[in-house]
Amino acid sequence: MKKIIYTALTLLLLIQVSQLSAQAMQFPQGIYVGYTKSMVNSFDVPLKNGLQVEYLFDQPGFLEFSLPFTFARSYPISDHLGQEDDSEMLTLDALIHFQLTKPHNKFKPKLYTGPGFIYETSGLSVLTGLVGAEIGYQFHPRAALVAGVQYRFGVEQWGRQAVARAGVVVRLGSNAYSSQAPVMADRDLDGIADEQDLCPDIPGAIALSGCPDTDQDGLADALDHCPELPGSAAHNGCPDTDQDGIPDERDACPELPGTTAENGCPNRADIQTEITRLQSGIQFQANSAHFLSVSFVYLEQIRNILERYPSYKMYINGHTDSIGSSEDNEELSEQRARACFDYLVAHGIDPSRMSYFGFGELKPVADNRTEYGRQQNRRVEFLIF
Predict the structure, then answer these.
(1) Can you identify the CATH homologous superfamily of domain 268-384?
(2) Burial class, 55, CB count within 10 angstroms (exposed 0-12 / middle 13-18 / buried 19+)
(3) N or C of the chain: less Cβ packing under 10 Å?
(4) pLDDT tens-digit map of 210-221
């Protein structure tokens, strides 16, 4: 019968050790060393004192396994013949502990239970069960004081025992009592430790090493020339609304595709060609600065061009033929240029974008000796820049 019990116990312990060994590399371990005293038992020798050594295996959550070994020796006592006698007792157990508080608490009450084995040097041995309770106090990250009681019950009448014990647990792995990662300084509370945060005082994104990106364009504000406007890395974080390859910050016409030569604006020569075509339709009453009605269609189209290209400015130059005195011609040409200026201002064009001049007969473009030539010289020119 005893051989069957010993065999069963050995198999149980081997299974327990194989399971625990698989965890040993993953989870912290510890050693308990303490004093144990038998308070009540069913042995012939009633009081025993001993040394207990226990190997601990922490598990995830609130579980812990242990393999306690105890060597105990009795106080010498006198039998009915007056002879003193003493004996030794060996125990080996396989226990599972249930922690009743969170692992990082300093005070750690536990309940535990499991199978055990007792061997008495007098020749007695028995398979037992064991239940117990204890409380620990962690006074160091790797050490704790432990005290508790346990009750052992045998499969036979012999083997019952109540034991008190006290000792010290020393941890062998990393901090077994802490379930939290070390707290690292994070002044801006963005989840990135200061030692890894390139902007430790300003909340930022993990992808940007802790630096902010206000416009969410993937470029940190410190490197973004337009931190409040989404842009591209090719333009240092600035937008290019008209997609002409010139960022808005350097584009004189940010909403119109243009050329580098024109600072991002459309080709000025093409615009000037269109304006030159329109200016020939502007006509005045004879020797007057009053428009003929046909002129307003062309003036309105010129206004539209100025509105479409707000970065451009304009010279308005008045010219006449050579009939009459040069003074009168200069005054008339300036009045006609001023009439065009006033119309455009009245219809929404900023006056700071325009200037007007009267050149009189000084800049003819055709021969004043013919009617056709004089007609060509009586004109108003719109020159953009």
Answers:
(1) OmpA-like domain (3.30.1330.60)
(2) middle
(3) N
(4) 899 898 888 898
